[in-house]
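ok so heres the complex, two chains, lmk if somethin looks off
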Amino acid sequence: MSRKSSQKVGFGILRFITFFAIISFVVTCSFLLFFTSASFDEVFIRRNAPLTFLNIFLLTFILWVIDHIRRKITIERPVKMIKSELDKITKGDFNVKIPRVTDIADESNFNEIIDGINKMSEELKGVETLRTDFIANVSHELKTPLAAINNYGTLMQSPDLTEEKRIQYAKSVTDASRSLANLITNILKLNKLENQQIYPVSKPYNLSEQLCECMLSFEEVWERKNLDIETDIEEDIFINADAEMLSLVWNNLFSNAVKFTDMNGKISVTLKKENGVSAVSVSDTGCGMSAETGRHIFEKFYQGDTSHAAKGNGLGLALVKRVVDITNCEISVQSELGEGSTFTVKLRCDEDETV
Amino acid sequence: MFKILVVEDDRDLNKTVCEYLDRNGYEAVGCLEANEAYNEMYGNVFDLIISDIMMPKIDGFEFAETVRSLNKDIPILFMTARDDFRSKQRGYGIGIDDYMVKPVDLDELLLKIGALLRRAKIANTKQITVGSLTLNAEERSAVLDGEDIPLTVREFNLLYKLLSYPKKTFTRSQLMNEFWDAESESGSRTVDVYMRKLREKFEDCKDFEIVTVHGLGYKAVLK
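and the predicted structre for the whole thing:
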């Protein structure tokens, strides 16, 4: 017999003794309370004492059995179930979802543990898919610019290179390394958001101001491309959210808008508040996308049009989506191929937080 | 010639930055760690410091703090791989002037250095000269072609700010926060009124222009 099961028997006996002691105590107290004034002859007592003892014993046994069954249902069964699912997780199967126990069995708060484990397996699954997809996509995205750098480096070593060619190759190396750097920055940011449970730090702040300041950081680019900027930003809208995280959203949306809009195009940004919901829209007159692309646009490494692949790394909107999920906002996209796209982010803001 | 101190522990990066600065009209001195930098600063006067954060022994924060305690005015630019908000916050808290995240674009670095040096000069001389216009912060005077242009304190401050950072757009709120009391009842549209007045007063000045940027804010553009 294993040590565990002998321990179990020991606990069973201990519980029996405990019940016995409690019932004896209660019966004794009852006797003392009700029969102190009554007098019994000794024969009567002698005859009834063993019977009373047996009664107590029987009661104890019944209680013990009931308690045992209760324990089986409310503790041992859920524990067994949780344990078997945990074993699966240990073995690397993250598709585990433990059903919640019924309310009767929940007196030991197993549902809290179960919810915790389900959340954990969900997170683990996220990390796992990220890891597998990631390795495939990342190696492709990383190797392409690396190969370019490598090739140009080799080319530049040839002694009979014209000055013009040399400068051109050097520029290509710079471009490739720059896109590599952007990719790595985004991977690290996304990784931080994906792999760790980040809790947003919510504080009331001026969203209108944040949008203006974020937009202004693209001033130089839109001036160079001679873009028409239209703003309709309601002033002094305060929201309660994590400003740093949301700035990631605005920066990515603006940079996409600027990136995908051709020379002399138009970008408009609006911020409107209606029924306690602030809606930020970023529209461009860029290349737009098909409905099919629109469905996948928030997936990691998805790029609508491979001809634009050089401009981005397919991680920006995945970052945006992740932040939007974490901060409980909503994002939607409307787009027409060749016409342009509109991204709309909706944030709930409670009335009492308007200053 | 401006002398720039580059404190960066990566030998290659240090070398390339210094070389690029040297090629672009600056005199750069590279140091691989803070102690070396202290020695350099002991014997030389520098106009600007570029520093990494993560370095062996003494990190960039400590280095910047020490430098700041000795010299309140020298522009310090952090050039670091750390892009978390906390590092930026800590850096600016110590009193650095600008922050760039690696990998840095060397051309952008040049732009930032140019702007920092210009602002340092403005801070030192308390004077901005734009073509025929001279603003003097101490006398709070604006002289255009030898003619004094009367400005209220707030008008002067706004103009001084815009001209200190030409081509940089400030939002109305940023300007409000700096030049109006927090208790001020006036809305941010008050800024518009001041900008209109400034434009009127400097109608004759052809050296700069106050530009409204798409309803986002204002900037001064030099001509």
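quick notes: The helical segments of chain B are 11-23, 34-43, 60-70, 85-94, 106-125, 153-164, 172-179, 190-201. thats all i got rn
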